[in-house]
Design goal:
Shape: elongated
Structural class: alpha+beta
Strand content: 25-35%
Number of strands: 20
Order of helices and strands: EEEHEEEHHHEHEHEEHHEEEEEHEEEEEH
Strand order of the largest sheet: 6-7-8-3-9-10
Number of helices: 10
Distance between the termini: 14 Å
Radius of gyration: 25 Å
Largest sheet: 6 strands, mixed
């Protein structure tokens, strides 16, 4: 397999800057997910790596070799598309073997590779069928098999699960992760679905408007978002944002939200270095505690709220609450019974709070409750 490096990558379509000076390294054997909203440039990055688009500027390296001027067929990559791109007049065997046949691979070697991939993917009984005779999940496996038999240096996936139903998407996510471990493959995977990104990627790269905003493990990006966009895009339900005022007194730091005060933890981090003034307070729904008691009884840092929506999801419940000028979502245990219109108190663990600059939208320094050192690296994370 091979490392993929992008240096200063830029792509213009007429006057539209689809990719803006992007730098990214995908380690050998890593599963990296490019995630972002529709139109953010992630598929364009994938097509640039594949050689289906030519960069306006910048460099692309695969396995240490500069490939931006190489045609797609010479880049030793395999791409799996959203619509599967199977030949309807060929059976499964021919669809999977076609790429090897075009490269002049010996017939015995082609047969061995196709049958090996078919067994790995659980479609050995489908080799004589045509694509129209297959389910969506089986067609996806055929597209995967066609890529696997090539034994490329890099696999590229362009939203391959988006045409599957919800239950099959969940199953295929797990199968792709297992497949990555078996192949010890370098994979760049594009999706707009942040759940796919969080559950599949060893690292995720968040894009918006052609820019790469943050790269890190799912845990890092979720708990330490670099800016407001990442904080709001990653996580379901998304992070709550409240307008607040940061005040310092001596070595203490206090947040004022409406009439409530929250004292931030003194953990040696540079909270006190933050300039007093307006900030955006971010807190995840699971870090909002909902109490059926009055603010006075619950102590400091509490907000009064009213439940507007109750969503039951089995083991947990989502509450949509009105807290004065703010709408807040809380994720709570389903064992507690809540009613629409109920008056409640909301408390936030100060150690779970993230602060953002309202002008730059960048995260301000400070410690998060769930902060943890980075994982050892892609090679260790595969478990191989």
């Amino acid at each position: 397999m091979a490392e993929v490096s992008l240096e200063g990558l830029i792509k213009h379509f007429d006057r539209t800057e689809a990719v803006r000076s992007l730098d990214l390294r995908v380690a050998d054997w890593e599963f990296l997910v490019l995630v972002g909203p529709s139109g953010c440039g992630k598929t364009t990055v994938l097509r640039l790596i594949a050689g289906l688009e030519t960069p306006t500027a910048g460099r692309i390296f695969i396995g240490g070799q500069s490939v931006e001027n190489l045609p797609a067929r010479k880049r030793d990559i395999a791409m799996v598309f959203q619509n599967y791109a199977l030949y309807p007049h060929m059976n499964v065997y021919r669809n999977m073997a076609f790429g090897l046949e075009q490269r002049g691979a010996p017939e015995a070697e082609t047969r061995r590779r196709v049958h090996e991939a078919a067994r790995m993917l659980g479609i050995a009984e489908c080799l004589n069928r045509k694509p129209r005779q297959l389910s969506g999940g089986q067609r996806q496996r055929v597209a995967l098999g066609r890529a696997i038999v090539r034994k490329p240096s890099v696999f590229l996936f362009d939203e391959p699960l988006s045409n599957l139903d919800a239950k099959l998407r969940v199953k295929m996510r797990g199968e792709l992760v297992k497949l990555h471990r078996r192949l010890e493959a370098t994979i760049v995977y594009v999706t707009h679905d942040q759940v796919e990104a969080m559950t599949m990627g060893q690292r995720i790269a968040v894009m918006n408007e052609g820019r790469l905003l943050q790269v890190g493990t799912p845990r890092e990006v979720y708990h330490r978002p670099a800016n407001l966009f990442v904080a709001g895009f990653i996580g379901s339900p998304s992070m709550n944002f409240l307008n607040a005022s940061l005040e310092t007194a001596g070595e203490g730091v206090t947040l004022r939200v409406d009439r409530s005060e929250i004292t931030l933890p003194d953990d040696g981090r540079p909270w006190a270095d933050t300039t007093p003034g307006s900030v955006v307070l971010g807190v995840r729904p699971e870090d909002v505690q909902v109490l059926p008691v009055s603010p006075k009884a619950s102590g400091g840092g509490a907000l009064s709220g009213k439940i507007e929506v109750v969503e039951h999801l089995g083991a947990e419940t989502y509450l949509e609450l009105n807290a004065g000028k703010h709408q807040i979502t809380a994720r709570v245990n389903a064992s507690q019974v809540w009613e629409i219109g109920q008056q409640v108190t909301l408390q936030m663990d100060p150690a779970s709070i993230r602060l953002f600059d309202p002008k730059t939208e960048e995260a301000l320094p400070g410690r998060h409750l769930h902060e943890a050192p980075m994982a050892a690296g892609p090679r260790q994370e595969t478990g191989t």
